[in-house]
Write a structure and sequence with these properties.
The structure holds two protein chains of two kinds. Chain A is an all-alpha fold. The N and C termini of chain A lie close together (5 Å). Chain B has a domain of 85 residues. In chain B, helix 6 links the parallel strand 7 and strand 8. The longest helix of chain B is centred in the middle third of the chain and has 18 residues. The chains are: A mainly alpha, B alpha/beta. At the A-B interface, helix 10 and helix 11 of A face helix 2 and helix 3 of B.
Chain lengths: 385, 337
């Protein structure tokens, strides 16, 4: 396993450099540069423009710029923004990243949890009115033009019913005398979620050595309840909680919109995967053994139907930022997607490169995680350690 | 069950079983008026071409027919109880406990994501009267693995780590795990190569002899059936056409179909002769032939065979068959020129 991961890491490094190369030349292939922003202003003389270009290194041949860039990236230096000079790119990205991760991780996790369950049940209840209703709903949500749907949601729940805020990720009035910055709160929320995930993983890891199923289940329930109580108590006593609540309130509408759209795709995927599994011989074996129907559905069929869904889950995490451009624009959510969009329109090449490089990096990591997760879930492709 | 069953009553009795599959083109008459009995410790073989209803009978016994199947009439009586009248939940508890199965596709009958031992333990957990601990169940599985000739440590392995023959042996071990009254072996060796096939058959025979359980073998391979059963039922187009002690049926097949089936099978010990292939196709069961279902392919068919259906009759004690012209069937195998 270690050798396998090592090999994969090496491949990923090479692939990343190839990706950066293509990215760099593609981004520079667009006409003009940052100095063009000032062309329309008659007060700025052409010499000043030249000075600006020279300062930013844009007067050098493209190939030298490229070598310089790769060298910088490999030393973890993403450069400085042209548009917000001299703010470092990494600072801009790190400010936007937690907001995007928070929004999309919530929506992705939620939609996979609910979508998998729905797909499973729908496949099980094949040819019933419930199935047809769910299928029609899922296909509509899956095929709907997403920006239109998002605006419709915003109009209906935000404007018409006035239930949710129309945009932004916080209410400035409530943060007026806040001792925390929004990012501190975002980071704390992400951190607590990460800690909870690690604790849940640890609970399963440590209890799987209990041989008898009954005590194992009891131990798991107890420890998981402890983790849940711990999280609730932490956020109840934390002075950040009121600010976190404000952010959460602003999250509801974008997360619901995203979740509905993701959810439909996952329901459809799970359903077809589940229907395929239900035709397998081992499902018949389980029936012949007298295994109860619910256990056949969950333990035998759904467990195998999970495999393709897992792949899609991990890869969808990589697509988070790209998908963020539309969502973040519509809901005025100042995350990485919006940052990328602004950088590209302003020809702020370093920031655009940084954001895109990050997307590429995330995609590579997601593929590695998918491979590892697959090996965990499917003993047939487990690599001999 | 504390019910007392007299020695003469067969353990399993199938009476007048009629089963159809509903398709969009109409009803397929898959099992038509089949009756047979199985005594404790006995082994019965069901032979016939593909699609003749062998597997449909097996699935009727454990009531795991596809959704479009309808049991029109008949009784399946196991130790005095009609299995067809049990509630679905009662039936579920009987499966594997009373009747277990060795499947045709052992390759695919294991769930790929669970250890083989765990999958056997699943059956044990459901059916043993007192739910055993993991340790107790594992001890039983180890014992069964030794019985079928697999290293007990293999129960910690996943199905893909087993060879084809081992998977099939493990299925046999699983079939034995709840001490069933009857094991149905549906083409238990078809997917295996000839050498492994022989070993697995030998093991099955040995186990049956040692543990004294009843086995129903289903195969299109008449040679396999001959080797390991003491009763045989020959099926054609959903009907049982001949039933009797294996020795008798093989020595002197009296139904034209059995006779032709045996003539198309090579014999190593008998005189050397050319094989006579069975001509024609099995009939379309959406619209089965009138009278005797075999008459379109039968060399002895008469007008009566077209018009009237022959009943199952005892020819000799315990040897039944359904044919109007059975006395015309030669005593030696058919030879081609």
């Amino acid at each position: 396993m270690v050798r396998f991961i090592g090999k994969r890491l090496l491949q990923m490094g090479l692939l990343f450099i190839v990706f950066l190369t293509i990215l760099f030349f593609l981004l520079n292939a667009q006409p003009g540069d940052i100095s063009q922003q000032f062309v329309g202003n008659p007060d700025i003389p052409p010499e000043a423009k030249e000075i600006l270009r020279a300062r930013l290194g844009l007067d050098q041949p493209l190939f030298f710029q490229y070598l310089n860039y790769v060298k910088n990236v490999l030393t973890l230096n993403l450069g400085q923004s042209f548009d917000h000079f001299p703010r470092p790119v990494s600072e801009i990205l790190l400010q936007a990243l937690p907001r995007t991760l928070y929004l999309f991780l919530t929506a992705t996790l939620l939609s996979y949890l609910v979508g998998f369950q729905t797909g499973k049940l729908v496949a099980w209840k094949r040819d019933t009115p419930i199935e047809r209703f769910t299928m029609v709903g899922s296909i509509i949500l899956y095929t709907v033009f997403y920006p239109w749907f998002a605006i419709l949601m915003l109009w209906f729940f935000g404007s018409k019913l006035g239930l949710f805020p129309l945009g932004k990720f916080l209410d400035p009035e409530k943060w007026f005398d806040s001792p925390y910055t929004a990012n501190q709160v975002f980071n704390m929320m992400l951190l607590s979620a990460l800690v909870a995930a690690i604790l849940v993983g640890a609970v399963y890891w440590f209890t799987h050595k209990i041989v008898e199923p009954k005590p194992r289940q009891r131990a798991r329930r107890l420890l998981l309840a402890l983790v849940a109580i711990g999280m609730v108590v932490f956020w109840m006593v934390s002075p950040m909680s009121q600010y976190a609540a404000d952010i959460a309130y602003h999250t509801i509408l974008p997360v619901t919109t995203l979740t509905l759209v993701f959810y439909a795709a996952i329901t459809l995927l799970t359903r077809s995967s589940m229907l395929e599994t239900l035709r397998e011989d081992y499902i018949f074996t389980a029936r012949a053994k007298g295994v109860p129907e619910k256990v056949i559905r969950d333990r035998h069929a759904a467990r195998n139907a999970l495999l393709p869904v897992t792949t899609s889950f991990v890869l969808s995490i990589a697509a988070v930022i790209g998908g963020g451009i539309v969502t973040e624009s519509i809901f005025s959510w100042p995350g990485l997607g919006l940052t990328l969009l602004n950088a590209v329109t302003a020809e702020d090449i370093p920031v655009a490169m940084g954001a895109l490089a990050f997307i590429g990096f995330l995609a590579l990591v997601a593929h590695l995680i998918a491979d590892i997760l697959y090996a965990v879930l499917d003993p047939r492709i487990r690599v001999e350690s | 069950m504390t019910q007392t069953v007299s020695r003469d009553t067969p353990m399993l009795e199938v009476r007048n079983l009629v089963m159809n599959y509903g398709t969009k083109d109409g009803m397929v008459s898959a099992v038509e008026d089949v009756s047979f009995t199985l005594a404790r410790g006995d082994s019965l073989g069901l032979v016939g071409e593909s699609g003749c209803g062998k597997t449909s009978i097996a699935l009727s016994l454990i009531r795991l027919l596809p959704d479009n199947a309808v049991v029109k009439q008949g009784e399946v009586i196991l130790d005095g109880e009609n299995m067809l009248e049990l509630s679905p939940e009662e039936m579920r508890m009987r499966r594997w406990d009373d009747i277990s199965m060795v499947f045709q596709g052992a390759m695919n009958s294991w769930n790929p994501v669970y250890r083989v031992g765990d999958q056997i333990r699943e059956a044990i957990d459901i059916h043993w009267d007192e739910k055993p601990t993991v340790r107790e169940a594992n001890a039983k599985i180890a014992e069964l693995f030794e019985l079928v000739g697999i290293d007990p440590s293999m129960m910690e392995r996943y199905p893909h780590e087993f060879s084809g023959g081992m998977k099939q042996r493990a299925v046999i071990a699983m079939a034995l795990s709840c001490d069933p009254k009857i094991i149905i072996a549906d083409e238990p060796t078809t997917a295996l190569d000839v050498i492994v096939q022989e070993q697995v058959l030998e093991e099955l025979r040995q186990i049956q002899h040692d543990l004294g359980m009843s086995i129903i073998y289903i195969s299109h391979d008449i040679a396999v059936i001959a080797e390991i059963t003491n009763h045989i039922g020959v099926m054609y187009a959903g009907k049982l056409v001949e039933y009797g002690p294996t020795v008798d049926v093989f020595a002197r097949p009296r139904h034209p179909y059995s006779w032709l089936l045996l003539s198309s099978t090579p014999s190593v010990t008998g005189p050397r002769m050319k094989l006579a292939p069975l001509e024609g196709e099995p009939p379309n069961l959406l619209d089965p032939p009138s009278g005797c279902r075999f008459h379109p392919r039968c060399p002895f068919a008469t007008d009566r065979c077209v018009a009237e259906e022959p009943p199952m009759e005892d020819i000799v004690e315990g040897h039944r068959l359904a044919c109007w012209n059975h006395d015309q069937v030669p005593t030696t195998a058919k030879e081609t020129e």
